[in-house]
Design brief:
The structure holds two protein chains of two kinds. By secondary structure, chain A is α+β, with helices and mostly antiparallel strands. Helix content of chain A is about 35%, strand content about 30%. Chain A is globular and about 30 Å long. In chain B, helix 4 packs antiparallel against helix 14, helix 5 packs antiparallel against helix 6 and helix 9 packs across helix 10. The chains are: A alpha+beta, B mainly alpha.
Chain lengths: ~70, ~350
């Protein structure tokens, strides 16, 4: 399982990190950790635009794990 | 996300339209022309009201700035998004704030005012907007190379509350020492008796409208810099549609109210030096991009507990004071004595910061 940890970053870095991660390997499942609502929305929007199904799981009230699947 | 209409594309369009509407109404109620809301100009006026600079025509404790922060604070508390955080290269952000304000005051406006000036028919703002786009584009080149100021960390509630508390303090000062008609001072505060600083909407409208804008902007993540950046980086139109809506509504209302004045010469609080209208905003745009938000967005993030954004905003307050004390700020008559110097030095500082924070080869 690949995981991208965007905690502590604000836009545009989480979205850039998502793009970087899927650039050469779009079909492998990817989890993205986000710790703020704006990043959650931005990464979700970017992933959906790129054909991913996004499921959000609350980790500890602050951090959310976004499961990106094709 | 499903509970947040404002984070959808129709949502951001609605928010942009409301900002356009309220900005034009603030102009109708007394704010200077094409300056219904300008974060850079209003921070400059606050800087003057506090005596950080003594340019007599631009001194007024603009309640709009307080409203923008408080609106965002309220929205972030209601939505449980108030998160004290910081520690991502604070001094770098402070410096970027200084450079951003000085660049913006060569052009005479932040990105919001750039759009409002365009919507009022001010052709000089075409050069400002082009400069803004070029500055942000340069910023995206840094991001593509791995530019980052590093992660922020969770901080104490107090650390996140300091900026909103400072804002409360300013509001208290305003209420305790209101403007006395025709007097340049009231208690410790300075008030312009002529010039742009003397032109303002009533306190209630200024504060109330700005609280609404701050609330909506926090929910929608409205950002003018982000609008262009996301377009350049990802071809995402989401935020751009928000600023487009702002422009369309403001333009339409100017046309309806008869305040649309197409042309270059004699535009309100503007000059016609195209090269430095462009250059000032290249510098400012790059500084906004490297700092991660336009001046408005920085206020909204500061309102939700981001002390790094608060430091950027204080940097802008200081930068605005420096711009007037050092003669780098423009006026309707043209650019300041040292405006070109500030623009070029600021640009070099941004490049240095950009190159120094590229994390991977």
């Amino acid at each position: 399982m690949r995981e991208v940890d965007t905690r502590g970053f604000s836009c545009p870095q989480p979205v850039l990190m998502f793009h970087e991660a899927v650039k050469d390997n779009a079909d492998e499942p990817l989890d993205v950790l986000v710790d703020n609502q704006a990043s959650l929305e931005n990464v979700t929007r970017a992933a959906q635009k790129n054909g991913y199904q996004v499921t959000a799981h609350d980790v500890d009230g602050t951090v959310t794990r976004l499961e990106l699947r094709r | 996300m499903k509970n947040n209409f404002f984070a959808t594309t129709p949502g951001i369009v609605v928010v942009g339209a409301i900002i356009g509407l309220l900005a034009i109404l603030l102009q109708k109620f007394g704010n200077p022309a094409n300056m219904g809301i300008c974060v850079a100009c209003f921070e400059r006026d606050i800087s003057g009201a506090l005596g950080l600079h003594r340019a007599a025509i631009v001194q007024y404790l603009r309640p709009e700035i307080m409203g923008l922060v408080l609106g965002s604070l309220i929205a972030s508390i209601v939505s449980r998004e108030f998160k004290p955080r910081g520690g991502s290269a604070p001094l770098v952000r402070f410096l970027l704030g200084i450079v951003a304000a000085m660049g913006a005051l060569v052009f005479l406006g932040c990105p919001w005012r750039t759009i409002l000036r365009l919507a009022g028919g001010d052709g000089n703002a075409l050069f400002g907007f082009a400069g803004l786009a070029v500055g942000i584009f340069i910023g995206t080149l840094f991001f593509r190379k791995g530019y980052s100021l590093g992660r922020s960390e969770k901080q104490s509630t107090m650390a996140g509350a300091i900026f909103p508390l400072l804002i409360f303090g300013l509001l208290l000062l305003y209420v305790l020492f209101p403007q006395v008609q025709g007097q340049p001072q009231s208690g410790p505060l300075f008030y312009s008796v002529k010039g742009p600083g003397s032109m303002h909407a009533p306190f209630g409208a200024s504060l109330g409208f700005a609280v609404i804008i701050g609330f909506l902007a926090q929910r929608s993540r409205f950002c003018t810099m982000g609008a262009l950046r996301d377009l350049f980086l990802f071809r995402y139109w989401h935020l751009f549609l928000g600023i487009l809506a702002l422009f369309v509504v403001a333009f339409g209302l100017n046309a309806a109210f008869g305040t649309l004045k197409l042309g270059f010469a004699g535009q309100p609080v503007a000059h016609t030096d195209s090269l430095w209208n462009f250059g000032g905003m290249v510098t400012a745009g790059l500084a906004f991009a490297l700092a991660g938000g336009c001046p408005g967005r920085q206020l909204f993030m500061a309102g939700e507990g981001d002390s790094d954004a608060g430091i950027f905003a204080i940097g802008m307050l200081v930068g605005a004071a420096l711009a007037h004390n050092l003669g780098t700020a423009s006026s309707g008559a043209g650019i300041g004595t040292y405006g070109i110097h500030a623009t070029v030095i600021g640009f070099i500082i941004c490049l240095a910061i950009g190159f120094a924070h590229i994390k991977r080869a």
